[in-house]
């Protein structure tokens, strides 16, 4: 895996040889682990050019618009597979055969219930609390229900934690919704199928997955790690973008205001960004967005939604982003959350629940990465820094300070 070497020349010091590691596909990586011994660290805020781990789960080629889960293109999974099959694939590395699939579906269904005591956690939240705040709390609280009996070094315990999370997330999401409505909570109906949500199932080392890995690298309880992932997902630059798209459309209000908001998005002194546009990795097209756009068209057609002012706004924004040189030069295409926001709105999901739906779909990805990390030797995640603060100095007594 490390046939090639890179040579780093640091002024005034002997050259340093660094191994180059080659993956199955994708760019080679320069292994800088030996660099610390020379008294240097690498500096890469935001991980613009840093691979934080080795993984066999998901591959993305952002320039070509390719997304593979365990080697299978997302388009094929979307057309020929279903969500629980994709979960099995992410967790185990291979698609299940018919018997394995039946067994997995039945196991997931067996674990959909949550402990009755968990309900009391909801009462601590205001009814108008944001559903993502409640999700962070109640998923974190699951760690209190499965802690003493859970040995993260035991592969079977890791497996059952993964299944528990996949199975309980829809139940918790529904409870969060019912609580926010002031309605009684309902028990899951295991005769119904798990909704199809796989375009969000995994997306390699994004902010929330990296957060789960980082939290997990300290040996923390997996349910607490997933709560950390939910927190990272909530931000509008990540999974919170689907909700932010709708909030933005409300803010723009009318097609006649679009030019003003496009000017704001281009203005470097204005923090406003077009929500649902751009992606760190996809600089061509987001393959999930292609599938999601088709689904979006189908959903709107099926529901007979036409002449909706918000939809008209969204379509006009999409048109501008695909033709305006500012967006073209920066490869700012509509991303998956642009279309998922429109779909979720059209099928009647309340806006504040959008990111919860994303979280429940992504849970399998988070827990697959957590499992993968713990299945082989790993180190606690501990980045270094470039310190630019004061040098060592002595305290001035309080009475002498100006
Ligand atoms: N509207 C206007 N300008 C933008 C936008 C946007 N949405 N996104 C990026 N830019 C500009 C940015 O100002 C910069 O311009 P310049 O080169 O002149 O300084 C250039 O495009 C490159 O942007 P960046 O901030 O360096 O890109 P990044 O890789 O750090 O950020 C992003 C990626 C997704 C955080 C960002 O595009 C963004 O905030 N988009 C809106 C939020 C959003 O839709 N997020 C969901 C992402 S998809 C779901 C998921 O996978 O989580």
Could you describe the 3D structure shown?
The protein has 402 residues and is mostly helical. The radius of gyration is 23 Å and the shape is globular. The chain has a 3-stranded antiparallel beta sheet, with no helix packed on it. Strands 4-5-6 form a 3-stranded antiparallel beta sheet. It has helices at 74-80, 83-92, 98-110, 119-122, 131-145, 155-181, 207-216, 222-234, 241-252, 258-266, 287-302, 309-323, 325-329, 336-346, 354-374; strands at 4-8, 16-21, 29-30, 58-61, 66-69, 72-73. Strand 1 and strand 2 (16-21) form a beta hairpin. Bound molecules: carboxymethyl coenzyme *A. Carboxymethyl coenzyme *A binds at residues 203, 206, 236-239, 241, 265, 273-280, 330, 332, 335-337.
């Amino acid at each position: 895996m490390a046939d090639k070497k890179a040579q780093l020349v640091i002024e005034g010091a002997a050259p340093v040889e660094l191994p180059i590691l080659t993956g199955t596909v994708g760019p080679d990586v320069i292994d800088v682990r030996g660099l610390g011994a020379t008294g240097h660290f690498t500096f890469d805020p935001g991980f613009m050019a840093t691979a934080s781990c080795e993984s066999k789960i998901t591959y993305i080629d952002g320039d070509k618009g390719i997304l593979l889960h365990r080697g299978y293109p997302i388009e094929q999974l979307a057309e020929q597979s279903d969500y629980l099959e994709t979960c099995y694939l992410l967790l185990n590395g291979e698609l299940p055969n018919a018997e394995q699939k039946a067994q997995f579906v039945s196991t997931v269904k067996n674990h959909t219930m949550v402990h009755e005591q968990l309900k009391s956690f909801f009462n601590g939240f205001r009814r108008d609390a944001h559903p993502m705040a409640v999700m962070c709390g109640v998923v974190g609280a699951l760690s209190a229900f499965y802690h003493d009996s859970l040995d993260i070094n035991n592969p079977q315990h890791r497996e059952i934690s993964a299944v528990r999370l996949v199975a309980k997330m829809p139940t918790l999401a529904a409870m969060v919704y019912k609580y926010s409505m002031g309605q009684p909570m309902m028990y899951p109906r295991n005769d119904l199928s798990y909704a199809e949500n796989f375009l969000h199932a995994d997306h390699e080392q994004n902010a929330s997955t990296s957060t789960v890995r980082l939290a997990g690298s300290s040996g923390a309880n997996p349910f607490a790690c997933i709560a950390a992932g939910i927190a990272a997902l909530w931000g509008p630059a990540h999974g919170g973008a689907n909700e932010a798209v709708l909030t933005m459309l409300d803010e723009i209000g009318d097609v006649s205001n679009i030019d003003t908001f496009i000017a704001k998005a281009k203005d470097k002194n204005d923090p406003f960004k077009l929500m649902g546009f751009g992606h760190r990795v996809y600089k061509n097209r987001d393959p999930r967005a292609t599938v999601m756009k088709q689904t979006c068209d189908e959903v709107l057609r099926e529901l007979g939604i036409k002449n909706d002012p918000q939809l008209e706004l969204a379509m006009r924004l999409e048109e501008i982003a695909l033709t305006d040189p500012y967006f073209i030069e920066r490869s700012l295409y509509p991303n998956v959350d642009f279309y998922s926001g429109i779909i979720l709105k059209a099928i009647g999901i309340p806006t504040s629940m959008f990111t919860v739906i994303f979280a429940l779909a992504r849970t399998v990805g988070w827990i697959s990465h957590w499992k993968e990390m713990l299945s082989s030797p790993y180190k606690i995640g501990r980045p270094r820094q470039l310190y630019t603060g004061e040098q060592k100095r002595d305290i001035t007594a309080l009475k002498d300070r100006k």
